[in-house]
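User: Show me a protein chain along with its predicted structure.
Assistant: Here is one chain, sequence first, then structure tokens.
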Amino acid sequence: MKLTKYTHSCVRLEHEGKILVLDPGNFSEVSEALEGADYLLITHGHPDHYDPERVDPYLQEHPEVRIYAPAPVVEQMSRTLPNSQIQAVAGAESITLDGFNIKTFGGQHALIHPLIPMIPNVGYFINDNLYHPGDNFVVPDGVNVKTLLVPIHAPWNKIGEVIDFVASVRAPRAYQIHDSLLADSGRTMIGTHTKNFAARYGTEFSLLEPKESVEIS
């Protein structure tokens, strides 16, 4: 399975001739990531994970793309995409698609501040390999994650929680997501700390550049 990491939390997967895209947000190269997509998964409705101004026009031209997202996002998309195939998902569900088997985890976005309402967030575990948590640190139960995507910087987290998340999942390999608010020096610093601590727990953590691809199995 080929993984291409776009800016921030957007990821493109290619497997058995099918293309799946996760979280094309307003920091991401939306048009390039979505080109030829068969499936779109959205973890939650914040604009850095789903940018309707750029995503919806593409989907209007490509109603064949099958979309999976939390219920509030589906309700929003249904108003502008009446011809699209959109399905609401929550945690503890399974989805079977050509080229991809998916299990869902979680339920709520991580707390930013008590005065900011919480919204649904769904993490996706794909092909018994890759876990994209969206915006929380829910550790998926009952599965063995081989490749972990790690939100390394956000208004809702700190570096100790990043390290603890990697240590708890203990995937053999991990890559960063949710990093667009960082300067290069900050990304390097957080990446170095995460890499050093991750190694103690058997995880090889690496920073990917935007549009960089890796093969995962």
